[in-house]
Amino acid sequence: MKILVPVKRVIDSNVKARVKADQTGVDLANVKMSMNPFDEIAVEEAVRLKEGKEHHAAGTASEIVVVSIGVTQAQETIRTALAMGADRGILVQSDTDLEPLAIAKLLKAVVDEEKPDLILMGKQSIDGDNNAVGQMLAALLDWPQATFAGKLEIAGGKATVTREVDGGLQTVAAELPAVVTVDLRLNTPRYASLPNIMKAKKKEIVTKSVADYGVDTADRLKVLKVTEPAKRSAGIKVADAAELVANLKNAGVL
Amino acid sequence: MAVLVIADHDGAHLRDTTHKTVTAAKAISGDVDVMVLGQGASAVADAAAKIDGVRKVLLAEGAGVAQGLAEAVEATVVPLAAGYDAILVPANTDGKNYAPRIAAKLDVAPISDIVEVVSADTFVRPIYAGNALETIQSADAKKVITVRPTAFAAAGEGGSASVESIAAAEAPKTTFVSAEMVKSDRPELGAAKIIVSGGRALGSAEEFAAVIEPLADKLGAAVGASRAAVDAGYAPNDYQVGQTGKVVAPQLYIAIGISGAIQHLAGMKDSKVIVAINKDADAPIFQIADFGLVADYKTAVPELMAALG
């Protein structure tokens, strides 16, 4: 089984985003960038499917292809996935930030070429917070989808996925090929070891451009401005529980 | 210009997230229809018909849509899209699951988790874990939008719309296997007026249950948790408040033993009053708390229980 894993280079999750003074966006100059945390979980699960780790049968996955759409530096993100155990990478170079619809269309074009049996990807990126690309890709391909996966089993031509939903867990079975988007608790991603980082340097990354796919990537949404959310006014420290309760009663919330 | 709102319900009761989404819809157009997807859900449709300002209710019943399978919902909603300029869905896990799928089928850009309707084509939504707000204008003729319920007031009752049955599609390639829902007598996290939330400092599931739950029960509050507490197994997944869990905005949010990581704050910083109880005076949570108590929860929570009488 061949698995395609889309990954995104985003602001590191420990960095607090700062809005630019001219309100055109978030300042990403000299900010630490990393692989989107949900995508790390998707890569880890793909590698486990190949290794037969945890509850997966060994060799469930035969090849793991990682794809990223973005600037040249997204190569580093692909390289990280290769060091974790993916086999080869594809970079679709784009100097502009593309919207989820355009990303989904480009990914569909990659899927049409690569013909994977399973697409494993993060449920959302921590920059745009859209939570949309996986669902859109599944729709464009007319494949079933299983989002917010907290547990994944591959058997009998199906992906059986326990989804993290409001109020609890739901298990669905999706016929392969399918798109599965992963949630935080699916696994704990590994750190790439130094030998694997060295080996990853020899693995292939093919660079393509958006133009290679003949896909309409025009923006549908115009960002009018990006602003800082209202700041909360500074609070007070109370000395003890009694003072706390008195303050809450005063504020009308008790 | 008409707007379709897809209702949020549990099969028997309409959730107030639907009323809140109707409020957002009314800011776009005066003609608001509500669609109820379910099975044996006529009571839900009747409840939706009573929401003030609703033009009509569409009831689509079938197994696939009742189980919230995205493929079935998409195939049910897309053929009706021609009659609407916008489709609005509460941004809960169901809505997030199917709304982008509908958008892709309609070849439009989905707009996720809006917190404000500026005009019929312009919306505000949080990005970067709520550290920035983006105002976007859509060029699409049709819009598919998920609505953050906590950002809108609930539409009132008093309507008397008609209920119309329509055909529901199924999902041929996806099968529902099972559901395991957390049973709770407490208010729902998303709708609660007060939330008591616990973090990693609690140290164990037993301690979490022994400290957080009695306080929540005393206050009639829902129980929340930080990701650290959930990951450590102290609380179930669906208690998680934050960027990747639930976004809440209660009247009162009490954070106990929670340091206040960016991802947690993304889920609760719009609460009206925030209380932090933490023994680390430098914990980031104190920067946004209205009332902070620097103390060990082991002594502070029993004292708080006593002070509440």
UniProtKB/TrEMBL annotation, chain A:
Pfam families on file: ETF (PF01012)
Ranges for domain Electron transfer flavoprotein alpha/beta-subunit N-terminal: 23-217
Keyword Transport: yes
UniProtKB keywords: Electron transport, Transport
Family of this protein: Belongs to the ETF beta-subunit/FixA family.
Keyword Electron transport: yes
InterPro entries on file: ET-Flavoprotein_bsu_CS, ETF_a/b_N, ETF_b, ETF_beta_N, Rossmann-like_a/b/a_fold
PROSITE patterns registered for this protein in UniProt: ETF_BETA
This protein's name: Electron transfer flavoprotein subunit beta
Domain of life the protein comes from: Bacteria
Automatic annotation (TrEMBL), chain B:
Annotated Electron transfer flavoprotein alpha/beta-subunit N-terminal domain residues: 3-185
Database matches in PROSITE patterns: ETF_ALPHA (PS00696)
SUPFAM superfamilies in the record: Adenine nucleotide alpha hydrolases-like, DHS-like NAD/FAD-binding domain
Keywords: Electron transport, FAD, Flavoprotein, Transport
One family name in Pfam for this protein: ETF_alpha
SMART domains xref list: ETF (SM00893)
Organism domain of life: Bacteria
Residues of the signal peptide: none
Family in the record: Belongs to the ETF alpha-subunit/FixB family.
Designated name of the protein: Electron transfer flavoprotein subunit alpha/FixB family protein
Lineage of producing organism: Bacteria, Pseudomonadati, Pseudomonadota, Alphaproteobacteria, Caulobacterales
